[in-house]
What does this fold into?
Amino acid sequence: MSKKKFLYILSGNLSTTPRALQSIKTALNNYKVDIIGVNRNNIWKELDKKLVNENNLNYKLISLQRKPFFQWFFCSIIHKIAKLIYPFFSKNLKITAYASSKTMFLLNNEILKTIKKYDFVIAHSYSSFYPAYKLSKIQNIPFSVDIEDFHPGENISTTPKKEIARRKFLLKNILPKAVYLTFASPLIGKHSLELLNNNIPENFLVNNCFSQNEFQFDENKSEKVKFVWFSQNISSGRGLELVIPAFYSFKEKVEITLIGNLYSDFYEKFLVNYSEILKFEKPLPQKELNLKLSEFDIGLAIEVSNIDINKDIALSNKIFAYAQSGLYILATNTQAQKLFIQDNHDLGIICEQNTLSVVNQIEIIINDIENIRKNKQNRYNYSKKLAWENESKKLLKMWNSIL
It folds into this structure.
């Protein structure tokens, strides 16, 4: 009996969507899997190549950059035209999709060209929602949607009122047609489902965690307390402006490592002033990053809730990576992170989103570092219940029921 065929549609690079990669690796054990992604930055393209080789993936990456020029130009023109005519066609799903995101057009154009027949299509991230829905209609197959963020609640700089309306319209009209929905935090699920009134498909939480075998336990005996923070980009608006100055009064006792793509303007305008306590690492493939985290004491989960609603209700993959490494977590008091620490109270501590509160919590951590290090093994063992091995069972059960 031949294996069923899955298509994963991502609106970004594979290496910047670790949540999708976990799902893909689970699916590969039982199904044939193709993946379509969108390249926005060549830094991630190179990391994608490593993932493809390591996991033997059938992966097509479409560029959203200016090369090839005609593809970028045509995509941009369609997006602009759609935005111009949108006020007259605000109830048209295709025009709303193309006006909302040029990536939606790029991905939809790609799936319209496919001659492969699939059994199931999975959309990861907002700009893949409409293309997955469209392919499901064309091929008469089920599709699912993974809601990693609450997109109407994200920070939108251009015509925010219109864009919020577009996003809500797309979610209201696409999500109910999915065979099931997954979401990346309890509050993202709550806010998303509230848009759908009573027209709600089956849905469940899938945490942003990783396989436990991607982590290792390691003791840190250095004199300085070692903090770590990682993200795709080391840039402004990510909470670093809030916490880095707080560390400076403890500069003889702490060391902070920032891992990601360092924006030179952010370094020159801000980080250079604190360079003596900072170390920088280039972006790492997720598996290498997860192993490296064991070198540290404290993971920084710094989110600023007043940036947008999504920041307040999302749980990033970093908080799970810290927990699964056995690190103690210093997290700001977003709604989602407060709930996480309340449910897993031995894994970390919450601070308010101001420098004074961060200073106070750093001082508590420094004074208690011996005990924090002593309990690292306990945290590492506890976090096994948060691992992907448990979350993947939910997906396998669902796939077996619909295919």
Summary: The chain has two domains: 5-209+388-402, 212-386. The first strand starts at residue 5 and ends at 10. The CA atoms of residues 355 and 386 lie 30 Å apart. The longest helix spans residues 69-85.
